[in-house]
Amino acid sequence: MDAIETASSGHPGMPLGMAEFGAYMYGELLQYNPRNPYWYNRDRFVLSAGHGSMWLYALLHLSGYNLTIEDIKQFRHIHSKTPGHPEYRHTEGVETTTGPLGQGIANAVGFAIAESMLSARFSIIHHYTYVLAGDGCLMEGVSAEASSLAGHLCLGHLILFYDSNNISIDGSTDITFTEDSRARYQAYGWQVLEADPYDLTSLRAAIKAAKENKSQPSFIILHSVIAKGSAEKEGLASTHGAPLGEKEVRATKLRLQMPTDTLFFVPQIVKEFFTHHAQMGEVAEHDWQEKVDQWGIENPGLLAEWKERQNNEIGDTLRYLGIPKFQEKESISTRKASNTMLQALSSLVPHLVGGSADLAASNLTNITEHTDFSAKNRRGKTIRFGVREHGMAAITNGIVIYGGFKAFCATFLVFSDYMRPSIRLAALMRIPTIFLFSHDSIYVGEDGPTHQPIEHLASLRAIPGLQVLRPADAEETTQAWLMALESRGPTCIVVSRQGLPVYKKWDSQWCEHMRDGGYIVHEPTAVPQLVILSTGSEVSLALNAIKGSRVPIRVVAVSDVNALRQSLRRKELIPENAPVLVVEAAVAQGWEDFTPREHIISIERFGLSGKGEEVATYLGISVHQIIQKIDMLCG
């Protein structure tokens, strides 16, 4: 109450309503060690209802994590360790960034998948993933997608607590949310239990039942009261997202028999209670490490693999080992080249896992050496996500955060719209999730405007910290995969449906220069009078357009528009005295920094159904259109 009141901002209802439950979680149930927040066999706890962040911060402070009372006093202040919603890598003990409701549930499903994969390979891993979610989390579609998959996969080490207080921001949930959540989760294949969050006997019985069920995730409904203990506002919607007010805080402290003249008061008995459990966690880690040491002696090969997974780095040598080779002038779609690269990576990077949203046959993500991950096969590496794009992206983020894996997910570029909130969070958390998008342009053709991406490249490029790669041929595609695996942040690899020629690169160091945002594909013998910037399939289009041209033209394949914008090589690639022509089968937005709008060949409308080449020609993406622009710019 004091932290939220001091900040004049926050959500006191959930922290008060779940206070007893929090004491049970961090004082009895969870296996953790605040002296080593990253102990690998710790239980994972996710606060999906991230608006209740002060609840989590209070418990982390009391449990001995590196979060002082001064940090608590700085709640919601700039640069504090206690931001408005929990942020991954910002506060010790926070397992993932939450706030956008439902995301935490989906991340936790990713944690549970990762835990089951690792435990099947390494017997030293055995822990649970717990989630606390509210009504809003259950309303969001991402939680439905993720929960459905979790039930299908029988993730028995996943336990979801539902803070069912029947209150949302606008009032009682009766006005919007009257579904039977119990029946819903039973239909998903979960074990459904109920407990009283204010009764330890009830909570312990529910957890016991959840842990005894090895074949189902558990959904535990907690019938709670928002702002429980508040003097006059207990049960009111107004406590969801606004401070109680000084008068109410004082009255509540009196009701709870706490001193009213002391801010941020913590009784000594409370400190001792949490300290005792934290010390038990330290002992638990020590005992676990002894088991790991003995296991390592008995399994030296597995121990070496375990250490390698913890490092989880992709060395530079990977660029030169077993990378597929392609013949010049060979016509191959970049989605097929991507699949060829995936086949090679399956042995080069054994901890690479991932899958597609029911489109593996179209975006070519099947890996012949991988079996499917399933309820019966925890050693499988191909994850069948089904038609659940949003859940897929958030689950993959969870796998990446958990550690020990390189993980990707895939669908058509146009459906990145369904995934954008999760992609944004991957960028915000700076985690190296790989998003593979095929069918990258209007060349999709007959499926028509609903399946032809137009604004999607610009939309993805607008996300800070997101690497967006659109390779122009098979060779670039292999490098795009390496760039994604080397990256410390998220990457989108955008590949074509149609065949593209493998072209000769003028730049002998093009593999390295791709990492700067682009490289010279074609360089004239004379000083360039025009520079063409292009991506993906439009690079080969530009190369065809300049054949026989009397104008000396440089063609630059732009691998990453944002990287090129900031690259030290930008002036080297784009001389100031030469006009620039941009060619991309998408909206012009984002390219205006390189050239005036009238110098951009783009698409500023939705597509239409027809053969890909015919659609492209109709929309002005053609050799003829490029030649006309060259003539206009060069006289």
Describe this structure in words.
This is transketolase. Belongs to the transketolase family. InterPro entries: THDP-binding, Transketo_C/PFOR_II, Transketolase-like_C_2, Transketolase-like_Pyr-bd, Transketolase_bac-like, Transketolase_BS, Transketolase_fam, Transketolase_N. Its EC number is 2.2.1.1. The structure is a single chain. The protein has 635 residues and is an alpha/beta fold. The protein folds into 3 domains: 284 residues, Thiamin diphosphate (ThDP)-binding fold, Pyr/PP domains (Rossmann fold); 186 residues, 3-Layer(aba) Sandwich (Rossmann fold); 125 residues, Rossmann fold (3-Layer(aba) Sandwich), CATH 3.40.50.920. 40% of the residues lie in helices and 13% in strands. The chain has 25 helices and 19 strands. The strands form 5 sheets. A 5-stranded parallel beta sheet has the order 1-2-3-7-6, with helices on both faces. It is elongated. The model has no long low-confidence stretch (mean pLDDT 96).
For the structure shown, list the relevant keywords.
single chain; 635 residues; alpha/beta; Rossmann fold; 3 domains; five-stranded parallel beta sheet
